[in-house]
Write a structure and sequence with these properties.
The structure holds two protein chains of two kinds. By secondary structure, chain A is an all-beta fold. Chain A is about 0% helix and about 50% strand. The chains are: A mainly beta, B mainly beta. The interface of A and B includes residues 41, 58, 92 and 106 of A.
Chain lengths: ~110, ~120
């Protein structure tokens, strides 16, 4: 069975540009969340979506947005990129398991120059 | 403020030696507790979790963790470390009233294993 898949795996952008990251959850999982992991730090929660509705948002500026599609895949958008947005962006999906039992993708590494 | 602290940024152990990684949390009530592992270039994988009941929980790959309410700690242990255990380990919590995906992670402990 396929795990959580993310694309692209690596990308380089310049300051002020916009980026879209994509995530496909494990088949049957309806909940998707996004995390930002800056080098040398633990992941930080950005968004949670369930059944196409936003169920939670972390302490990130409005430049960050996301959405979930009818097939439960998700996109994370970041506008007006800053150098500090350089990070590994992780997507995680959750099925019917207990709270916090997340399955993570390998991430999209964004470098902002 | 709610927080998760992993006091050790780096730990080096010899292969076959025992391991203990420390985790302390600060929350109003006991949250759900987790340990995740991240190998180089990989996403995170759940090692084990504590929700309630027995305070010693077993996980995958021979890991275990003990919840101590009095110390607000959830330390990860392994009796004998293998070279393949070299990775970064993250302690995480979810508040009891949370929807379930909003994990708060500690800063991580990088484990290196000497042959």
């Amino acid at each position: 069975d396929a795990g959580v898949t993310q694309s692209p795996t690596h990308l380089i952008k310049t300051r002020g540009q916009q980026v879209t990251l994509r995530c496909s959850p494990i088949s049957g999982h309806k909940s998707v969340s996004w995390y930002q992991q800056v080098l040398g730090q633990g992941p930080q929660f950005i968004f949670q979506y369930y059944e196409k509705e936003e169920r939670g948002r972390g302490n990130f500026p409005d430049r960050f947005s996301a959405r979930q599609f009818p097939n439960y895949s998700s996109e994370l958008n970041v506008n007006a990129l800053l150098l500090g947005d350089s990070a590994l962006y992780l997507c995680a999906s959750r099925g019917q398991g207990e709270a916090g039992e997340l399955f993570f993708g390998e991430g999209s590494r964004l470098t902002v120059l | 403020a709610q927080s998760v602290t992993q006091p050790d940024i780096h730990i080096t152990v010899s292969e076959g030696a025992s391991l203990e990684l420390r985790c302390n949390y600060s929350y109003g009530a006991t949250p759900y507790l987790f340990w995740y592992v991240q190998s180089p270039g990989q996403g995170l994988q759940l090692l084990l979790k504590y929700f309630s009941g027995d305070t010693l929980v077993q996980g995958i790959k021979g890991f275990e963790a003990e919840f101590k309410r009095s110390q607000s700690s959830f330390n990860l242990r392994k009796p004998s470390v293998h070279w393949s255990d070299a990775a970064e380990y993250f302690c995480a919590v979810v508040p009891l009233n949370n929807a379930g995906n909003m994990l708060t992670f500690g800063g991580g402990t990088r484990l290196m294993v000497k042959p």
